Amino acid sequence: MKQSPESPRVNLVDIAQALGMSKATVSMSLRNDPRCSTATRERVRKQADAMGYRPDPHLSALSAYRARLRAPTARATLGMLVNSADLKLIGKSDLVSRSLTKCAEALGYGLDTFELPTSPKEAVVLTRVLSARGITGLIVRGGFTRLRDVPLDWPRFQAVAVGGHVNRTGFPSVTTNYFQGARMMMEKLAELGYRRPLVAIKHGGNNALEGLGAIRASRELFDQFEELDFTAITPDGKLEALIRRLKPDVVAFPMAAPWALPRMHAAGWRVPDQIGFCTQVTQSNKEKISGTAPPITSIAEAALSLLHRQILHDERLPMNHAPSVQIPPDWCEGTTLRAK
Length: 340
Fold this sequence. Notes:
This protein has 340 residues and is an alpha/beta fold. The protein has helices at 12-19, 23-30, 38-50, 57-69, 84-87, 95-106, 120-132, 178-192, 208-220, 239-246, 260-266, 296-313, and strands at 77-82, 110-115, 137-141, 158-162, 173-176, 197-202, 229-233, 250-252, 276-280, 291-293, 324-327, 330-332. Helix 2 crosses helix 3.
């Protein structure tokens, strides 16, 4: 029966008593929360309509305001999705995971790790597990470039992608600014007095972006170099032959190429006495090799900040205009470059 103007306002408790449900279940169903089944939500909506329930706009506005201000409790949990290779590093040498966990805890969240699903069947199982644990916020790591590469039911979740090269994922992403990293590398070489750099760009793949950045940077710094050579190369390419033919005073890899330095040593070049070397370094080799390094702590802070904002505002995926944050890399002095 519809509510008359003289009748007391129907509230959530009235609906819950009529259905034999908890007030929390009624509240979540009326907010279309995916943690309640479709049948339960439909049943609650029908009962609310039958009883003439109308939400109080003032109370709704106040509740929404309080929800935006309220920090999550320590029991709130986020999920981190990683590929099988990264999953083996969790708890060992994976600084990215440790930084993400620390930033999550600072905001009052726990962070549980799950393997990225690679098939629709695995995605269904993972969705059930996440729903059962009340996890809707996800940090997604991996080499994918599109949202559909990870077959989850995305409208159920909030998510931020960490790492990668271009934000074509359909949800917010945080990554290193590879263009700026390449420019930083070339500026450092000019500052140290190198005049004949060989810029080695990985042949094919997303790493070509770093190479494009290096080209842009080098064009602007062109007058500071006597000669400037570019080459596309793979780990099994003829790096030694190129160095002998072009005679550069430094070899620069804007993308990660830890394999190149041992080969230069094996070929007899003394680095940095005879020739300099720089690349994108990792946590394990940044003390030895000069180059750019992903700003892991800053990336983790930005990723958790974006995800926290999505959760507070209940922003679901996919997004038409997903924000992309690109953070400048750090420079590691290492020992493979020196002032000329």
